[in-house]
Specification:
By secondary structure, the chain is an alpha+beta fold. It folds into two domains: 2-108, no CATH class; 129-250, MucB/RseB, C-terminal domain (Phosphorylase Kinase, domain 1, 2-Layer Sandwich), CATH 3.30.200. The protein is 50% helix and 19% strand. The protein contains ten helices and six strands; from the N terminus they run αααααααααββββββα. Strands 1-2-3-6-5-4 form a six-stranded antiparallel β-sheet, sandwiched between helices. Strand 5 and strand 6 form a beta hairpin. Helix 1 packs antiparallel against helix 6 (84-96) and helix 4 (51-61) runs antiparallel to helix 7 (101-108). The radius of gyration is 20 Å and the shape is globular. This is Anti-sigma factor.
Length: 251
């Protein structure tokens, strides 16, 4: 738990702009190489999740003296300022000790909403430079897609995933609340990073659109998986691309 907490403290300091320039540079280099670390940063960066509702059971049932003692221990080397993100990281540490964890997890675990929010925060870290370089060979890409498909029990073929004006750069597996997310990342020649994300959970079949973290999203589901296309392309183009993917993946 302490190693996880130390990572959270580092990420929180990054979000609060409290790292030295060299530390910030080193962390940003790690983020480009470590999807799990980047996903953790996206989670801690969240500001639109229902924290008040989610943490109310914890506040109602919390052993106050224990929490205060633990918080004093965490804050003994007093930071320059206590921020909402730092307190959230401390609360996450307490959850690891089992403080009302089951009830809190159930309220935080809102998969229909949260997985889109967290992926959007993760994608907000991407720039065209993140995806610079040559794409993998057709054989490498097919192997990545096969592996991602096997992890989510879905068939992913290169010919299904061709998008006009965009190049598929890689397929990888992320993790969220114990569930795997397949992330298929493209680079659009005009609008930059674009991704199709898939999670193994059913949902509403109709396609819906929304905007998060300055990006446009189109999401839909079938009887076993939920899909989300996210990028900086204009809404009309995102809808057209999503329709193309829906038809190809359903065939």
């Amino acid at each position: 738990m302490s190693a996880h907490h130390d990572v959270d403290e580092l990420l929180v300091a990054y979000l609060d702009d409290q790292l030295e320039r060299s530390q910030r540079h080193d962390l940003e280099q790690r983020l480009t190489r470590d999807p799990e670390l980047a996903a953790r940063l996206a989670f801690l960066a969240g500001s639109n999740l229902p924290f008040k509702t989610a943490f109310q059971p914890l506040l109602d049932e919390a052993p106050v003296q224990r929490l205060q003692a633990g918080l004093q221990t965490l804050l003994r080397p007093a930071p320059p300022r206590i921020t909402r993100r730092r307190l959230m990281a401390a609360a996450i540490g307490f959850l690891a000790l089992g403080v009302a964890g089951d009830r809190l997890f159930l309220q935080l675990n809102q998969p229909e909403e949260n997985w889109r929010s967290l992926v959007a925060q993760y994608m907000a870290l991407y720039t065209p430079e993140t995806l610079a370089g040559n794409p993998p060979s057709p054989q490498e890409l097919a192997a990545q897609l096969q592996y991602a498909g096997e992890q989510l029990s879905i068939t992913l073929l290169p010919q299904q995933l061709v998008l006009t004006g965009a190049t598929l750069k890689n397929a990888r597996i992320l993790a969220y609340d114990g569930k795997r997310i397949a992330q298929l990342t493209y680079i659009d020649g005009q609008y930059g990073p674009l991704a199709l994300c898939i999670i193994q959970q059913p949902g509403e079949a109709s396609a819906e659109s929304e905007r998060r973290m300055g990006m446009n999203l189109v999401y839909w589901s079938d009887n076993s998986h939920s899909f989300m296309l996210i990028g900086h392309n204009p809404p009309q183009q995102m809808n057209a691309l999503a329709t193309q993917l829906r038809q190809a993946l359903a065939s």
